[in-house]
Design a protein that fits this description.
The chain is about 30% helix and about 25% strand. The chain has about 400 residues and is of the alpha/beta class. This is D-serine deaminase-like pyridoxal phosphate-dependent protein.
């Protein structure tokens, strides 16, 4: 057993035996977040396809999905391979397909018997997918990506000619499964009413696109929407068949700033060690810089800027106004939030702190595993996770 780092025996919670920085996952908070979203989706009477891009772990996936075979959403083909190999068969790869990736998609479908669908938003992609499907004899299931709010990619819901054209080219060789939307502009909101309106805009755009396809005699059995903010704030989902969301599993400071979770709901944190001080500057130095936290500064545009992360004590309780104010590659600089009247805590060298991330996806991507805390706050398990494409 490693020696205590801050006056507590390493065996009390197991944290003193861990090398820092490392990624902690609070299983009780994870379970509560999963239960809350599941209840929200069930209340609307639609199917749920959790997005596994944040978790990238079969242990988390099996808790999040409605069954061991899915359904689920992924953001990389490496994720698709990883989860399909572990029995998840109903998968949507929710990033626009590049034609050179189609053979890899086909291999996953064939090798694992996976129902892996792709998305696209252009005539060129639709033609490539149809030609590949005809050539291989594998009628690839396809969603047309629709843009509800100008945030990212997708066909405008009112562009009926393009929607019909894409749908017709897909149907000529592949399987047109439906439309898929992501209301990414919701990440810039915080007012509950505005978030509810964003969810309604996403729903309306989805129905408009679906109706255009069906009016042209094209199939649209699945109408899929999803983001954690809109899924959390939707008033109703009439006409929608499935919801996707991912970061809700862990929560993060951006989601707390939006109002999709509370700071106390955040299930992931980075365990770091105090390695020095700069009393002249009011700094506490840790071994968790941007390589440990990521460079994400997503709260900078919100009402409360959390720097590179909010600092908590070893038990996970936030210190008043203590944030990671600066980050170098391997050094995190803890300081009180500008303008704060709080007293800087006395954290001797060797003290363990936990840092809540701005963006759970980006922070988790720095690590190959989770150190899982049980309901008593003890480090009780290690769950592997993957990275890459």
């Amino acid at each position: 057993m490693a020696a205590a780092k801050d006056g507590l025996d390493a065996g009390a919670d197991g944290l003193g035996a861990l090398q820092t920085p490392c990624l902690l996952l609070d299983e009780a908070k994870l379970a509560a977040n999963l239960s809350g979203m599941r209840a929200q989706v069930e209340r609307h009477g639609v199917a749920f396809r959790p997005h596994l891009k944040t978790a990238k772990s079969i242990d988390v996936a099996l808790m999040a999905m409605t069954g061991p075979g899915g359904p689920a959403t992924v953001s990389t083909l490496k994720e698709a391979e990883y989860f399909a190999e572990r029995g998840v068969r109903d998968l949507t790869y929710a990033v626009g397909i590049a034609p050179h990736k189609l053979d890899r998609v086909g291999t996953i479908r064939r090798r694992f018997g996976a129902d892996l669908a792709v998305i696209l938003d252009s005539l060129a992609q639709a033609e490539a997918v149809s030609e590949w499907s005809r050539r291989t004899g594998d009628r690839l299931p396809v969603f047309i990506e629709v843009d509800p709010d100008g945030h990212r990619s997708g066909v405008k819901p009112g562009d009926a000619d393009l929607l019909r054209g894409i749908g017709q080219r897909v149907a000529a060789g592949a399987e047109l499964r439906g439309v898929l939307l992501h209301a990414g502009e919701s990440y810039g909101l915080s007012d509950p009413e505005a978030l509810a309106e964003a969810a309604e805009g996403e729903r309306a755009a989805a129905l408009q696109a679906a109706e255009t396809l069906m009016a042209a005699g094209l199939p649209c059995p699945v109408v899929s929407v999803g983001s954690t903010p809109t899924a959390s704030h939707a008033r109703h989902l009439d006409g929608i068949t499935e919801v996707r969301a991912g970061v809700y599993m862990f929560g993060d400071l951006v989601q707390a700033g939006i109002g999709s979770c509370a700071v106390g709901d955040i299930a992931v944190s980075v365990l770091a060690s105090v390695i020095g001080h700069r009393p002249d500057k009011g700094w506490i130095i840790t071994d968790a810089g941007w390589m440990a936290m990521s460079r994400d500064r997503g709260t900078a545009a919100q009402a409360v800027d959390q720097g590179y992360g909010l600092v908590c004590d070893r038990a996970g309780k936030p210190y008043d106004d203590l944030i990671v104010a600066q980050a170098n590659q391997e050094h995190g600089v803890l300081a009180l939030r500008q303008g704060s009247g709080a007293q800087r805590p006395d954290l001797p060298v060797g003290t363990l702190v936990r840092i809540l991330p701005n963006h759970a996806c980006a922070t988790a991507a720095q690590y190959h595993c989770y150190h899982v805390l049980d309901r008593d706050g003890r480090a009780a398990a290690v769950w592997p996770r993957i990275n890459g494409w």
